[in-house]
Design goal:
With 147 residues, the chain is mostly helical. The chain has one domain. It contains seven helices and no strands. The protein is globular, with a radius of gyration of 22 Å. Bound molecules: heme C.
């Protein structure tokens, strides 16, 4: 029986096709930068572990939410955060989200293990996983776009 002959160029093409997906596969590379569209449903609704809206969807007052009202929809939350100053007694006059500067953003700092003021968020809830925290960090680092 004659051996099946492979053309070298066809073989190279098959190898190239087989390799391309493994180079760009999302599962084998570090997490994609977070977007607000992926972060919002993960953290804000009361059905999530973080449930920011449980407290920050209430009218602004010192005891329930440190005077930070973020509404119960994505657009309201985004508008409440970008370039806005905090007014809570524990963390007054800090910018909540400074685009391109996660470490300088109170919103990010409050989700980390040692926030500079007040308690770690979500208050009384499950701390964010490393992956969730990285999504928030990378979203702000990439400009905190309404994406
Ligand atoms: C159980 C209620 C509760 C939940 C849930 C909660 N927070 Fe808070 N949050 C508070 C309270 C009370 C304060 C004020 C005291 C403090 O800063 O420790 C506060 C303060 C903050 C501040 C500072 C506001 C300011 O103007 O000083 C940020 C930012 C914040 N929370 C973000 C979040 C995020 C993001 C989530 C969801 C991941 C979340 N919080 C979940 C109650 C909550």
């Amino acid at each position: 029986m004659p051996a099946v002959k492979r053309s070298p160029s066809l073989f190279a093409a098959v190898v190239a096709i087989a390799l391309v997906p493994s180079c760009s596969s999302p599962s084998s590379t570090p997490a994609e930068p977070g977007t607000f569209t992926t972060i919002y449903p993960l953290l804000f609704p009361v059905s999530t572990n973080a449930r920011c809206n449980f407290c920050h969807g209430l009218p602004a007052n010192e005891t329930s939410n440190g005077k930070l009202f973020m509404g119960t929809d994505k657009a309201t939350a985004y508008a409440a955060l970008i370039g806005k100053l905090s007014t809570g007694n524990k963390c007054p006059n800090e910018t909540l989200v400074v685009p391109n500067d996660p470490e300088g953003s109170l919103f990010y700092q409050k989700l980390t293990a040692s926030p500079p003021c007040g308690s770690r968020m979500p208050l009384g809830g499950t701390p964010l996983s490393g992956e969730q925290l990285e999504m928030v960090r990378s979203w702000i680092a990439a400009g905190a776009k309404d994406d």
